[in-house]
Amino acid sequence: MKKVEIIGLDGIPDVKPGDDVAALIEGALKALGLLLEDGDILVVSQKVVSKAEGQIVRAVDVRPSPLARRLSQDIDKTPEHMEVILRNTARIVRMDRRRGIFIMATPHGFVCANAGVDRSNVGKEEVYTALPEDPDGTADAIRRRLEKSFSVRIAVVVSDTFGRPWRLGQTDVALGISGMSPFRDYRGLVDPYGYELKSTMVAVVDEVAAAAELVKGKLDGVPVTLVRGVVFEVARGSSRDLVRRMEEDLFL
Amino acid sequence: MKKVEIIGLDGIPDVKPGDDVAALIEGALKALGLLLEDGDILVVSQKVVSKAEGQIVRAVDVRPSPLARRLSQDIDKTPEHMEVILRNTARIVRMDRRRGIFIMATPHGFVCANAGVDRSNVGKEEVYTALPEDPDGTADAIRRRLEKSFSVRIAVVVSDTFGRPWRLGQTDVALGISGMSPFRDYRGLVDPYGYELKSTMVAVVDEVAAAAELVKGKLDGVPVTLVRGVVFEVARGSSRDLVRRMEEDLFL
């Protein structure tokens, strides 16, 4: 009986710029009496990484461009928010100005609403949080540190919540990967009942991110999840491999 | 410490038209010594449902239309396969004939490659399996039957493997739902750190389908998964609620 467990790590405090995320995870694991095992996957929410790495801009420090002012007119976004979105945008994929929807490609190649820029109010101040610059690198640093501390081989995934076309609602996907291949590759194989699996390459890392979200919630302050029991291919891993090439994408 | 368990149900045999899927699941659970509990979610692969419901067409019984013949020219699909795809298509969303890619909207409103029609070789014969006609109804019938047998309240999801734009690889999503809302709705809420969750409506049922795939694999003959520990809103549920309305979709 194959079994996967998804465990939310309680006890990780609000993260501030400069915080050591790996140390916070290690502390939370030890406080919970959890030891990492070979093959474990740790899924870390983007917001925690972005904050620790200082990907935060205060509205008062932003000078909106004329384009940001124009795009934000009559919609539920400030010119400052729009400006930070545009600074994190490599390409506008689609926009519906009237509904305030901006689907952007980020410099990493991810396609998501608002280029992944979140808005929050810290006290009375409005601040924006952008995606990490190098989420693979972040995942890698966390993995190396925890592998050393616990003497294990694991994988680390940095995840974020993205919408998708055609289907309502968002799901968590992988932004950064270290220690595993993003895919389980069945191409060229046939299943036990004779079905072709020719084009089946499962994005197992995105399924891991989605599974991790099931215990995270958004209001619970559980930004890190331990996923145990997933069979994956050990590899360096990179979320760049998940990005479909523009010329092969029918929806760009 | 919040925890979700995903358990693959071994021992479900190859399903044939007319088979009683709920009875097979009940048998597998009992053979494994597993009792269903309130709040459990059972995730059943589409292929099992389609086969049991006889959504199978033999190539020899298909007379391809001129359009099916034309579209299948010079690509790795037979005219018969193309014909069955077209019969299950409500609308061609995108096609790239040269690469043999056909992204179709099904009558249910799902958007997926080949209208969800899979091809297999049963012995020397080529057969095609289409999506269930009413996957919500299938999920509902399985749920009612198992709730009665085990005296519990559960949810049932029928899942399939779909690709998506922008990101390589496929993930499992929900085709049919009974007993739970597809969403966890955070709109209008603020997280513990002041972040707006205005447009956050998590497609929890798709995350459950993705999580279930992690123990299923494609070659393991494990078409049913028990997901335990997910917090969800009890509701009738329907995958129709997951389908974004055409006029609100920027990628149709």
Oligomer: homodimer
State the fourth-level CATH superfamily of the largest domain in chain A.
CofE-like
Radius of gyration of chain A: 19 Å
Tell me the structural class of chain A: alpha+beta
Based on CA inertia axes, which overall geometry of chain A fits? globular
Tell me what the CATH architecture of the largest domain in chain A is.
2-Layer Sandwich
DSSP strand (E) fraction of chain A?
A: 25-35%
Q: Give the largest chain-chain interface (CB within 8 Å).
A: A-B, 83 and 83 residues
* Proportion of residues in helical segments of chain A: 10-25%
Number of strands of chain A: 13
Report what the structure shows.
2 copies of one chain form a homodimer. The first copy, chain A, is of the alpha+beta class. Chain A has 2 domains: 5-53 and 132-247, CofE-like (60s Ribosomal Protein L30, Chain: A, 2-Layer Sandwich), CATH 3.30.1330; 56-129, CofE-like fold (Alpha-Beta Complex). Helices cover 25% and strands 25% of the residues of chain A. The first copy, chain A, has 6 helices and 13 strands. Chain A has helices at residues 21-31, 46-52, 66-71, 79-87, 135-150, 204-216; strands at residues 3-8, 41-45, 56-58, 91-96, 101-105, 111-113, 118-122, 125-129, 155-162, 171-178, 184-185, 201-202, 224-228. Chain A has a 5-stranded mixed beta sheet. In chain A, strands 3-8-7 form a 3-stranded antiparallel beta sheet, covered by helices on one side. In chain A, strand 7 and strand 8 form a beta hairpin. Chain A is globular and about 55 Å long. Chain A starts with a strand and ends in a 24-residue tail after the last strand. The relative contact order of chain A is 0.20. The mean pLDDT of chain A is 94. The interface between A and B is large, with 83 and 83 residues. Strand 1 (3-8) of chain A pairs antiparallel with strand 1 of chain B, so a sheet runs across the interface.
